[in-house]
Design goal:
By secondary structure, this protein is of the alpha+beta class. It folds into two domains: 172 residues, Alpha-Beta Complex (Aspartate Aminotransferase, domain 1), CATH 3.90.1150; 278 residues, Type I PLP-dependent aspartate aminotransferase-like (Major domain) (Aspartate Aminotransferase, domain 2). The strands form four sheets. It has a four-stranded parallel β-sheet, sandwiched between helices. It is globular and about 65 Å long. The two termini are 35 Å apart. It binds pyridoxal-5'-phosphate. One of its GO terms (molecular function) is transaminase activity. InterPro entries: Aminotrans_3 (IPR005814), Aminotrans_3_PPA_site (IPR049704), PyrdxlP-dep_Trfase (IPR015424), PyrdxlP-dep_Trfase_major (IPR015421), PyrdxlP-dep_Trfase_small (IPR015422).
């Protein structure tokens, strides 16, 4: 069975973010079913999903209520659109629920099918807003190096991943990137006179201001960033970063776009990462945890400032997707939000699981391979190092991160590697016991990684 699937897969299936040739040689792992925080493969292995799929299965696998919501909606109205002047109950109810849960000034939502489409929508809304305000030169968008904002051309242009840019050109013009507040990777190396994380956070905010001045403040439309940068390496900014960034943006009247595709829906222990960091985004792209990944849906929450202008002064906005606010996806998303509320999932991450993970995860910092163990809510990272005292990294050619990832998988844990940064982002329904198990499996894989690297 496994070999059959692997053969068909190799012959016909091009995987996202995959070296096609290498996969053809190694063969895929076939995932057949899942429940709670565990996935199962075709060889009978049960694996703790420390990544919640792709940071999205917040409610865990196998929730009957979400299946029922989909079934009911498929029977009542499997598809209708929200174009022109029609809509349907799931889209309307979901829009209301989202605006109720979001910070007070976000009162409108534009639905999309994914996070990438949400960021395409952001780009268009930002530029349209400033054009309507009579400032068509305010076009530049400042994003961050190494950020991931999606795989559409606008998404990858907003993102700051060099390999994607190299394969994706020509990029959307008018987008530029500034450094990320990556303390372990860049800050601790002691740039500037004060090498504290807090000083580094301010340094990164200063880089935004310098970029604004270089472009001319009258030309800068928006700044886009995740509260905690996810795919870039689970980068938790120093506490000084966001307050300083807010100040800079306010000084030059620049819109703030907070990409909540990963951080939204409880990941950081609040409904949105913006709440944790006390941000007031003008635009907030969302996806993933919105439906716990059960069906594809995304959107952009729009603050009053931008929404009022688009509505009052904009006329028709020539933008939308066939599946914007798809009724079945919307019904599942609504049921997902209702379950998260009735089960107090977000509060549990904030008050219990987040602090518990922080304590348990930090215990890995004593491992010879670990230069830093950091977490916030239910997102965490380990920095693998060759020398614990100097923090020196392994040679790239050793592929320490990928080795550790593969050993984790072999031992029953999904952990992701971004270079030599190991990442977890488990379902928010994980228990304390399962967190213990996750940490135990991670340590086991670290031991084995160290052994292999020493060979
Ligand atoms: N924004 C962020 C922060 C993401 O992490 C992702 C996906 O990982 C996206 C946008 C793109 O979302 P999607 O894959 O649904 O298009």
């Amino acid at each position: 069975l496994t070999a059959d699937y692997q053969r068909l897969d190799r012959d016909h299936h091009l995987h996202p973010f995959t070296d096609f040739k290498a996969l053809g040689k190694e063969g895929s792992r076939i995932i057949t079913h899942a429940e709670g925080v565990y996935i199962h493969d075709s060889e009978g292995n049960r694996i703790l999903d420390g990544m919640a799929g792709l940071w999205c299965v917040n409610l865990g696998y196998g929730r009957r209520e979400l299946v029922d919501a989909a079934t009911h909606q498929l029977q009542a109205l499997p598809y209708y659109n929200n174009f022109f002047k029609t809509t349907h109950p799931p889209a309307v109810k979901l829009a209301e629920a989202l605006c109720r849960l979001a910070p007070a000034h976000l009162n409108r939502v534009f639905f999309t099918g994914s996070g990438s489409e949400a960021n395409d929508t952001v780009l268009r809304m930002v530029r349209r807003y400033w054009a309507l305000k009579g400032k068509p030169d305010k076009q530049w968008i400042i994003a961050r190096e190494n950020a991931y904002h999606g795989s559409t051309v606008a998404g990858l242009s907003l993102g700051g991943m060099a390999p994607m840019h190299e394969q994706g050109g020509p990029l959307v013009p008018g987008i530029t990137h500034v450094r990320q507040p990556y303390w372990f990777g860049e800050g601790r190396l002691g740039e500037g006179r004060d090498p504290s994380p807090e000083a580094f956070g301010r340094l990164c905010a200063d880089a935004i201001e310098a970029k604004i001045l270089a472009l001319g403040e009258e030309n800068v439309a928006a700044f886009i960033a995740e509260p905690v940068q996810g795919a870039g390496g689970a980068i938790i900014p120093p506490e000084s970063y966001w307050p300083a960034v807010k100040e800079v943006l306010a000084k030059y009247d620049i819109l703030l776009v907070v990409d909540e595709v990963i951080c939204g829906f409880g990941r950081l222990g609040e409904w949105f990462g913006s709440v944790h960091y006390d941000l007031e985004p003008d635009l907030m792209p969302i996806a993933k945890g919105l439906s716990s990944g059960y069906l594809p849906i995304g959107g952009v929450l729009v603050g009053d400032r931008v929404a009022d202008t688009l509505i009052e002064e904009g006329g028709e906005f020539f933008h939308g997707f066939t599946y914007s606010g798809h009724p079945v996806c919307a019904a599942v998303a609504l049921a997902n939000l209702e379950l998260m509320q009735s089960e107090g999932i977000v509060e549990r991450v904030r008050d219990d699981l987040g602090p518990y993970l922080a304590e348990r995860w930090a215990s890995l910092a004593d491992h010879p391979l670990v230069g830093e163990a950091r977490s916030l809510g239910l997102i965490g990272a380990l920095e693998l190092v060759a020398d614990k005292t100097t923090g020196a990294r392994f040679a790239k050619s050793l592929g320490a991160g990928n080795l550790c990832r593969d050993l984790c998988f072999a031992q029953g844990l999904v952990m992701r590697s971004v270079g030599d940064t190991m990442i977890i982002s488990p379902p928010l329904v994980i228990t304390r016991e399962q967190i213990d198990d996750l940490v135990r499996l991670a340590r086991q894989a670290l031991d084995e990684t160290a052994r292999r690297l020493a060979e």
